[in-house]
Specification:
Helix content of chain B: over 70%
Number of strands of chain A: 0
Order of helices and strands of chain B: H
Largest sheet of chain A: none
Number of strands of chain B: 0
Distance between the termini of chain B: 67 Å
Strand content of chain A: under 5%
Oligomer: heterodimer
Number of helices of chain A: 16
Helix content of chain A: over 70%
Distance between the termini of chain A: 36 Å
Radius of gyration of chain A: 23 Å
Strand content of chain B: under 5%
Order of helices and strands of chain A: HHHHHHHHHHHHHHHH
Structural class of chain A: mainly alpha
Largest interface: A-B, 32 and 23 residues
Shape of chain A: globular
């Protein structure tokens, strides 16, 4: 009877109770769990390594008329980014309700499963299976996987919110660095005279990522109620914005702070993402006959390193500088650097050009990694996962706006007879202008009005 | 429970914790180091 009642009382495997840690639990075990997920889903930024092989799945050595066009293949990545934004926005409130283990588990199934469905798509040469697999399923896995560990980390590290979020989101930057060489090596391994090896690579990567993400889902823990790091007591007012209240997900949408932060993220990402996609071409056109294609690829690699490093460095620094000051730095110094790029290009100083872009990319990464801690400061940690998810629609918007803006402006200038090397000047000044708008939006952020705060007695039962 | 037994349990638990930390961080650190090294090799082409 006792055993039976114990069994009934035992919390479900995925429940929040089952993953609530003891007070003696070492919180430094949580960042690896978060990294297990982010290192996998960060692979999305290296998806372009599959583009060329996917255009010759039938022809193998060269594309055949029946093979997929590059423009068709491009939709796979776009769909994944679209579904990332949608699932983060809608899955965020689900995450708050069911806890991080279930969300990370579903994320692993979707992301790993997306690869497996895509492998079938390549095998049977059905592009719809790739759209559905990597695009839709993979995108859902991306969105859920991106937000779930971040809010948990913020709860474990109230004294180091920036560092904690920076660690996880740095993993997303690092994921591309692992995904690209892994995919290239696997395709080389599975390649035969009759196959480009993409289907087998998708299958292998799907299984590897599934296992890895499951490790994260199984080892994630949430802190017990009222837990605080030993020896740490919250200061009465650590920064001018850090809050002691919580704002509900739906209520956050009624505050001007949410939209200011949305703009801050969107503009910071638009400026960075547009340039990142053009980096290789830009350095070759600005320094004609001086920078080879191989060196330009090295430049892109270097930017990825600074993008990843910036995520950790700037998010950690924001714990000391304050979030608002950190974004002020991104926007002001970023605008100055973007404005300086055309002059540096004309001066022919490659080293200064590379250095300038390295700093810009570190700001781009830093912008991603500092936003969760900024949200926690403004809206509290209770619903930060859900609010973060909704804010990530800014990323999806910027993911479309940034490259379109840069490509369109460049084409427009070239069509008007502007030299290719000079065609980037106007783009850079527009990017600098966007950062100035971001600076103003950041400046407008104030403490959330008391009428939006959750009353303490309603916190537990007021989840969406 | 004797004081010696409690001290031994505590030491064992801290060892287990340290091992867990090393294992967990290695699981994520190893592929990340590999990825960063591969990217650094690629980036080196810029300076050649």
């Amino acid at each position: 009877m006792t055993a039976a009642s114990d069994l009934i009382k035992r919390p479900g495997f995925f429940s929040i109770e089952a993953i609530t840690a003891s007070r003696a639990f070492n919180r430094w075990l949580i960042p690896p769990a978060a990294l297990c997920v982010h290192l996998c889903i960060g692979e999305v930024y290296s998806f372009s390594v599959f583009n060329e092989p996917l255009t010759r799945v039938i022809g193998v050595t060269a594309p055949m008329p029946e093979d997929w066009k590059l423009t068709t293949i491009g939709w796979i990545f776009s769909l994944a980014i679209l579904f990332l934004g949608l699932s983060a926005a809608f899955g965020g409130s689900w995450l708050e309700r069911v806890g991080p283990r279930k969300t990370m588990f579903v994320s692993a199934l979707c992301f790993g499963g997306g690869f497996l469905v895509s492998a079938l798509g390549v095998h049977y040469h059905r592009i719809t299976l790739l759209f559905l697999g990597y695009g839709v399923l993979g995108g859902i896995g991306l969105g859920l996987g991106y937000v779930s560990p971040v809010s948990t980390l913020l709860k474990w590290f109230p004294d180091k919110r920036g560092l904690a979020a920076g660690l996880a989101i740095m993993g997303f930057g690092g994921g591309a660095m692992i995904g690209a060489p892994l995919a290239v090596n696997l395709m080389g391994f599975f390649k035969t005279p009759d196959s480009v090896g993409v289907a087998e690579t998708f299958l292998a990567m799907g299984l590897i990522y599934l296992v890895y993400m499951m490790i994260g889902a199984l080892t994630i823990r949430v802190p017990p109620p009222g837990w605080r790091p030993s020896g740490w007591t919250p200061k009465p007012k650590q920064t001018s914005l850090e809050c002691k209240y919580h704002v509900h997900i739906n209520q956050s949408l009624k505050t001007p702070q949410f939209y200011c932060l949305w703009l801050v993220l969107c503009l910071n990402v638009t400026a960075g993402i547009g340039v990142l996609g053009q980096a290789s071409l830009m350095i070759q056109e600005m320094f004609r006959n001086r920078v080879s294609a191989a060196a330009a690829a090295g430049f892109v690699g270097l930017l990825s390193l600074f993008n990843m490093g910036g995520r950790f460095l700037w998010a950690s620094a924001s714990d000391y500088l304050g979030r608002k000051s950190t974004y002020t730095l991104f926007f002001l110094v970023g605008a100055l650097l973007y404005s300086a790029v055309p002059f540096i290009g004309q001066s022919g100083n490659v080293v200064l050009f590379v250095l300038c872009y390295a700093v810009i990319m570190s700001f781009y990464g830093g912008g991603f990694a500092t936003i969760p801690a900024y949200l926690a400061d403004i809206f509290g940690t209770r619903f930060v996962g859900g609010i973060h998810g909704r804010l990530l629609t800014a990323w999806s918007t910027a993911g479309i706006a940034g490259p379109v803006l840069v490509n369109y402006l460049r084409e427009w200038q070239v069509s008007r007879g502007v030299e290719k090397a000079d065609a980037y000047s106007m783009t850079m000044w527009i990017m600098a202008g966007l950062l100035v708008v971001g600076f103003i939006a950041n400046l407008l952020i104030r403490e959330v009005d008391e009428r939006h705060h959750i009353k303490h007695d309603r916190v537990e039962d007021d989840v969406v | 429970m004797s004081i010696q037994r409690q001290a031994a349990d505590k030491a064992q638990s801290s060892w287990a914790n340290a091992l867990k930390l090393i294992l967990f961080w290695s699981i994520v650190g190893a592929p990340l180091t590999w990825g960063v090294t591969s990217t650094l090799k690629k980036a080196a082409a810029l300076f050649q």
